[in-house]
Design goal:
- 29% of the residues lie in helices and 29% in strands.
- The protein is an alpha+beta fold and 78 residues long.
Length: 78
């Protein structure tokens, strides 16, 4: 299953990151791990989260798909 998720600063809601993964728990653990040793692909994201704190980041699921084949371009309402 593919999950489209959003990480959002609860104190500054206009700041958010949208990602996708096949394992949300593992991906969130990777995000947390990169806070200690920033991954260069998403350095601005991790720098931002380090400044505001992981406890101020909310994760919400925007959509799920059974497979990559089910993902088509679409709009998400906020």
């Amino acid at each position: 299953m593919i999950t489209i998720y959003k990480l959002q600063d609860i104190n500054n809601p206009e700041q958010f990151y949208i990602g996708s993964t096949s394992n949300l728990n593992a991906r969130l653990s990777q995000h947390k791990g990169c806070l200690k040793r920033p991954c260069k692909n998403h350095f601005p994201l991790y720098k931002y989260i380090n400044n505001c704190g992981w406890d101020n980041i909310q994760c919400s699921i925007l959509s799920t798909f059974e497979s990559v084949d089910g993902i088509l371009p679409r709009e998400f309402e906020q």
